[in-house]
Design a protein that fits this description.
Elements (H helix, E strand, L loop, with lengths): L7 E4 L15 H9 L2 E4 L8 E7 L6 E7 L3 E5 L17 H12 L6 E4 H9 L10 E6 L6 H11 L6 E7 L2 E4 H6 L3 E5 L2 E5 L6
Parallel strand pairs: 7-8
Antiparallel strand pairs: 1-2, 1-5, 2-3, 3-4, 6-7, 8-9, 10-11
Length: 204
């Protein structure tokens, strides 16, 4: 099983070596996991059978990183699996979900893409994390260089929607913002060793 950043993990247990570190979870994180036992894979080094993950709370400021054992994995949901997932009927009026309908149309020619952030989390878990102010976090998976002209067209098409659409590009070397890629000579590449300032995202 190859786990990647943004993958959601459903935990089979909150005991039995759930935590692989001595640090205790803050109370908000304990409450969050009791409500919904899901964590997201972080961009950090793996430690043998231990996986870097994060817990998300109700507030943007509530994020907690830790390591868990592979033995407590019940299910893995990748961002690409959420392309055709839909929210509960009573949640479809929210701007982010309205925007998502248009996002699907615009990205129909993209080979591999998925959803992260609060939208992806709610679609995967059913937990109501999306708010009226939520962005739509899109993840594009690319192995080859991006055509800048096409990328700018994509950003323009996505730039006039109800909710802001934030696009991250995932490569085998790390992740970067498509907006930065199209607008700056140098930009940040997020890697498991930390952020790096680069100019060519598809070469080591």
């Amino acid at each position: 099983m190859e786990l990647k950043p943004h993958d959601l993990i459903k935990l089979s247990s909150l005991r039995d070596r759930f935590l692989t570190e001595e640090n205790e979870l803050p109370q908000w994180a304990q409450n969050s996991l009791q409500t919904s036992p899901y964590v997201v894979v972080r961009r950090a080094p793996f430690r043998g059978e231990d996986i870097p993950v994060g817990v998300r709370g109700k507030k943007r400021s509530e994020r907690f990183g830790l390591y868990i054992s592979k033995s407590v994995i019940s299910e893995v949901i990748s961002p690409t699996q959420l392309q055709e997932s839909f929210p509960a009927k009573e949640r479809q009026h929210l701007k982010a979900f309205q925007t998502l309908e248009r996002v699907r149309e615009i990205l129909r020619t993209e080979e591999r893409w998925g959803l992260g952030g609060s939208v992806g989390f709610e679609l995967a878990t059913g937990v109501e994390t999306v708010k009226e102010t939520s962005d739509v976090d899109v993840i594009l998976y690319k192995e080859d260089a991006i055509d800048t002209k096409k990328a700018r067209k994509l950003l323009a098409d996505l730039g006039d929607l109800q909710s802001r659409v934030d696009i991250s590009v995932e490569t085998k070397f790390g992740s970067f913002s498509l907006m930065e890629y199209c607008s700056k000579e140098s930009f940040l590449l997020k890697t498991i060793e930390g952020p790096k300032l680069i100019q060519k995202p598809f070469s080591p």
